[in-house]
Specification:
α5 packs across α7 and α8 packs across α10. This protein is an alpha/beta fold. It contains ten helices and 15 strands. The structure holds guanosine-5'-monophosphate. The site of guanosine-5'-monophosphate has 24 residues, from β11.
Amino acid sequence: MRIEYDIKLGFKDVMIRPKRSTLKSRAEVNLERDFKFLHSPFLWTGIPIMAANMDTVGTFEMARALAEKKLFTAIHKHYSMKDWNVFSKNKPLDIENYIAVSTGISKNDSELLAEIFKQHPYLKFICIDVANGYSEHFAKFVKRTRDRYPDKVIIAGNVVTGEMVEELLLSGADIVKVGIGPGSVCTTRIKTGVGYPQLSAIIECADAAHGLGGQIISDGGCAIPGDIAKAFGAGADFVMLGGMLAGHTESGGDIIEKEGKPYRKFYGMSSSTAMDKHVGGVAEYRASEGKTVEVPYKGDVEATVQDILGGLRSTCTYVGAQRLKELTKRTTFIRVNEQENRVYSE
Ligand code: 5GP
């Protein structure tokens, strides 16, 4: 047994220190980024915020709404071939730049993935997602996927440490997804004791990825727009959101009414709700590692996106970053023991 004593930080442990700036208005801030990838020859331009590949968030409807604003959606893996065909028939122009096809590492998953790409070769992004990206088997799967799809942009995860980011990039991933346990409906830390505070995970993994010419996605733990700014400030190239995009018109999850008010169900992809729905229950050898919650219905996602992007533009003006790309360089985090004033929050 060994103990590491340097403190690892989460979003709530820091704030971003304001800096002198020549920017006059938020309108001057450009949130778009251009990326070249480590393996894939594609170039990408857009606002690097993503909807998570959860069946309550990574929906086709969400993708349509977010792509209009140049934001990205990792489409969840539970759509059938027929669903993809229907979607592709009236696909919005340019949608291939803003969606990824998600897959696990089972035989069924990879067969469906292959069929989706065979029938819809216009698609460009693959998101290979497992709860624990540390198995040797996973890195081998990433390698096989790279061999099979040499041009596609491959996202792989989740991990939280630099050495594993490097291994996945060297195995063929272009972008590594970072986050174990920070998610709003995740109970991994409760069930297993495993995890890594997200801000430190981003700082360490971004450093490893950028050294090799790869990118990272900070996945999970953003509860308010300020957390997204902190994730970018720490070095994330993309930020993935679950809970913040749940409960909208474009989200999935049953709509329920309680005391006259509408709610939408939101649940972790390893919750018993998700496992009952997709694989006929929680297998005997495992525990559910996700929660099921009901979130108040929030209306169309457009207003939430505007709120998020407005907050991020404002962060950039506070530190003098004219482009999102400059935010990390201009970020100094201060360690804090307080966050917002909660006198009027319930
Ligand atoms: P959020 O933005 O809601 O804080 O986090 C979203 C992320 O939580 C997802 O992208 C995914 O990585 C993670 N997640 C989703 N469902 C589950 C689950 O059932 N268990 C765990 N451990 N993580 C989950």
